[in-house]
Amino acid sequence: MPSSATAAVDAQQPSPTPPPAAKNALDRYFRITERGSSVARELRGGLATFFAMAYIIVLNPIILGAGQDKFHHQLDNAQLVTATALMAGLSTILMGAIGNVPIACAAGLGINAVVSLQLAPKMSWPDAMGMVVLAGLVLMVLVASGLRQRVMDAIPGGLRRAIAIGIGLFISLIGLVDSGFVSRNPDAAHTTVPLGLGQGGQLHGWPVLVFIVGLALTYVLVVRKTSGAILIGIVAMTLAAIVINSLVKIPDAGWGLSVPSWPSKIVDTPDFGLIGKISLFGGFHEVGILTGCLFVFTVLLSGFFDAMGTIIGVGEEAGLTDEKGQLPNMGKILMMDGIAVAGGGLGSASANTCFVESTAGVGEGARTGLANLMTGGLFLLALVFTPLATVVPSQAATPALLVVGFLIMAANVKEIDWSDFTIAIPAFLTIISMPFTYSITNGIGIGILAFILLRVADKRAREIPWLLNVVGACFLVYFMLNPIEQWLGVK
């Protein structure tokens, strides 16, 4: 298939060669032959993408299931597995059928941490998922009005990269804590060290060993460029955990979130109990209008730039972008991404977003949305295999968080201009603030405010887009909310 650069040169010729004739209606709709592909390659690519990202069926329920809402309620694991697979399948099929690109969608890592650890503890789960839906609706309005690209342009590229890296480090810390490799030191210890290795500075038990071996195995597979490395690591260590648990009879508490054992049945009726369980505006009643708007903004921003980067990156890998880096049907693609965000919240699976693992399918030859129909269909098929997903312990799945965290950092850290301190310092503060404050919101806000301050101090205020100043003003109020409320006598 010709590269995008070659395609651009060809487009300048006075008599361009007409594209090959479509073989049938399917070929004509998806432009399979025109893009130099075939039905077999599309189906093979869709299969590769599914195996590369199927780990999300296990990982998303673990992240969401680890959180508690304001009323100390936790979401049911089996219902989360169903919601994750269902919304991933539907949003992926929709992206393929409407956007005609081989870019699959599922619950976004990082965004689910925002929902679980920031939104839910301050409201009910339906309230938190309602805010995800609102973020998706706002995203669709931004796309329809053309503002999405303008907001994208308002955030400096280095700061966008830093946001992605900060999210990567944040989910890596979550992985270390959920696996038991790192734990919080009790306040009674009167130590200045907030976190420590294992329990009391030492690693204990088989579960942590499963995590360590799983992390090493997955990194080895990544280095060897093994397709589906993350899923292979999860499956292998789940089987190892089941064997270990059956032989050494580890107490239930040893595995944390899940006790691995052979499922009594492989196939079961999916539990759709979480679908549609949302309260669209209830969260504003719990946290107030300003904080609620900032929460919606955080969910919106968390997936906003990652999705844009993924869409362009996968498009370039597939040779679908033009000389300006634009994909065909970009408006439809962005709208489908907004629908995926809202749909994920509606299904209580957190916001769905575009997955960079789609490059696995592109590597197998996928060039059209037909590949998504295969990937999405497999996600829907996974609905009846819920018992298999619910036996995966956190120690077998959390290595994926550290692998994804590394991949995010590797793809973004070199793109930051560290020689320009007005970018480097805000980027640094963004990166460290997310894991250190256990908050993506804080990291984004601190980074934006630092950027505005340093550009003004460097007499470069005119370089700050007005939209970014508006966003900065919102975050300034967010950080000063408590003294403002005291001053106004609200609390």
UniProtKB/TrEMBL annotation:
GO cellular component: endomembrane system; plasma membrane
Keywords: Membrane, Transmembrane, Transmembrane helix, Transport
InterPro entries reported in the protein's UniProt record: Azg-like, NCS2
Membrane topology, record value: Multi-pass membrane protein
Subcellular localization(s) per the UniProt record: Endomembrane system
Predominant cellular place of this UniProt entry's protein: membrane
Transmembrane segments: 45-64, 85-109, 129-147, 159-183, 203-222, 229-248, 289-312, 371-389, 425-454, 466-484
Organism domain of life: Bacteria
Residues covered by region (Disordered): 1-23
GO molecular function: purine nucleobase transmembrane transporter activity
Any single Pfam family the record assigns to this protein: Xan_ur_permease
Family, as annotated: Belongs to the nucleobase:cation symporter-2 (NCS2) (TC 2.A.40) family. Azg-like subfamily.
Protein name per its UniProtKB record: AGZA family xanthine/uracil permease-like MFS transporter
Organism: Streptomyces olivoverticillatus
Taxon lineage: Bacteria, Bacillati, Actinomycetota, Actinomycetes, Kitasatosporales
